[in-house]
Amino acid sequence: MLSNATPQSQWEECINRTKHKEELIFVSLYVLIFIAGLVLNLIALVVFFCHTKTRSHTTVYMTNLALADLFLVCMLPVRIYYHLGFQHIPQRLCDITNMVLLINMYGSIFLLSCMSADRGVAVCFPMSLRVRQARKKAPLVCLAVWMMTVCASLPIYISRPQVNLRQTQCFGSFPVYATRTVTVTSSLTVGFGGPLIVLLVSSLGLIRAIRQSQAAQTELVDSQKIQRMIAVCLVIFLACFLPYHLSLWLIYLNQTFITCSLVDSYRYGLMVACLNAMLDPLVYYFTTETFRQRVDRSVLQQMRLTQGQSSEENNRSRALNT
Fold first, then answer.
1. Which CATH superfamily is domain 19-169+177-296 in?
2. Are 15 and 172 within 8 A, CB to CB?
3. Would you say the C-alpha torsion 189, 191, 194, 196 has a positive or negative sign?
4. pLDDT tens for residues 239-264?
5. Averaged pLDDT of the chain
6. DSSP 180-218
7. By percentage, how much of the chain surpasses pLDDT 70?
8. Which residues cross the membrane (predicted)?
C-alpha cells in the first residue's frame, strides 16, 4: 500500500495482487450465475408468454424482472473472459457491461419493491376501487422504472474522466462514482434504502392481514408457510444487495486510503448482487402458486410426451423383432 498514491493506483495495485485462486472463484461463480440465470429466466419468460392466458399485475412485474435478469446474465461472459486473464477488452465494451449491470441491478431492486407493494395493497385493501385502478397501471410503472434506471446510470459513464485508450482499465478500474456524494447518497437512499423500506412495510402489512384473515384463523391458509416465504424474499434481497451497497459506502468514507480488503469487498459485492439474477426465478416458483402450477403442468406434459414417444419406439422395435 502506497500512502501517497492516488485511489486509482492503490486500487490497481490491489487488483494486480489478486491471486489465481481468487480469479478462479470469480470465474466459477460467474459461470454458475450465467448458466443457471439464463436457463431459469428463459423458462420463466416462456411460462409468462406462452402458458399464461390472462396477464395479472404480478405477471407484468415478474416478466419485466425476468427480462432485467436475462439482460444481466447475457453480459456476464465479458466478465468471465476478463477474469480468465484476457484483459485486453475494448474500454467501450467494459463501460457498456458495467452500465448494463447497474441498470439491471437497480431495475431488479425497484421491480421487486413494486411487486411487493402491489401484493401488499391488494391484500390489505381488497375492496378499494382506487387501489384496483392503481394496480392496472403496472405496465406504466415498469416503463417508469426502466426510464429512471437508464437515466440515472447513463451520466455515471458519460461524465467519467477520459482515460488513456492504450491502457484498458475495464473491471479493474477504480469506481469513480463511489467518490461522488450525489451518486453514493442516491444509490444508498433511493436505490437501496427506499426499496428496502417498501419491502419491509409491505411484508409487515401482508403478515398482519394474513394473521387477521378468517382463512388463516380457520386454517384454510397456511399462514406460517406464507410468513416463511416473505422472510425468504427479504433474506434474498438483503443477501444479494446489501454487500455491494455497504462496500460502496465504505469506499466513499475511505476514498483517500484504499485498502485491498475494500477492493475485495467491492468486487465480491458485485458478484453477489449478480446472484439475484438466478435466485429470482426460484422466488417466482416457491412464492407464486400460479407460476408453480404452470411450470409443473408444463413439466408433466413434456414428460408424458417423452414417455409416449419412447413407448411408441418400443412398440416399433417389438414389431420389427417379431
1. Rhodopsin 7-helix transmembrane proteins (1.20.1070.10)
2. yes
3. negative
4. 999 999 999 999 999 888 888 899 99
5. 80
6. -HHHHHHIIIIIIIHHHHHHHHHHHHHHHHHHHSHHHHT
7. 77
8. 25-49, 61-84, 96-117, 138-158, 190-210, 230-253, 265-287
Q: Considering Cα of 137, then 283, then 273, then 26, what sign does the dihedral take?
A: negative
Neighbours of 149 (CB within 10 A): 22
Is 70 exceeded by the pLDDT of residue 93? yes
CA–CA dist 267, 171 (Å, integer): 9
Residue 296: the pLDDT is: 58
DSSP 40-106: HHHHHHHHHHHS-SS--HHHHHHHHHHHHHHHHHHTHHHHHHHHTT-----HHHHHHHHHHHHHHHH
Q: 5: exposed, middle or buried (C-beta count within 10 Å: 0-12, 13-18, 19+)?
A: middle
- Report the alpha-carbon distance of residue 285 to residue 288 in Å, rounded: 6
pTM: 0.82
- Polymer length of the chain: 322
C-alpha cell, 68:
432485467
Taking the C-alpha atoms of residue 143 and residue 114, their distance in angstroms, rounded to an integer, is: 12
User: Would you kindly state where each structural domain of the chain is located, as residue ranges?
Assistant: 19-169+177-296
Collapsing DSSP to helix, strand or coil, 133 comes out as: helix
Q: Is the CB of residue 253 less than 8 Å from the CB of residue 7?
A: no
- pLDDT(92) > 80: yes
The model's pLDDT over 14-54, given as tens digits with 9 standing for 90+, comes to 887 777 788 899 999 999 999 999 999 998 888 888 766 66
Q: Which residue has the cell 418400443?
A: 314
- Concatenating the DSSP letter of every residue in 14-40 gives HHHT--HHHHHHHHHHHHHHHHHHHHH
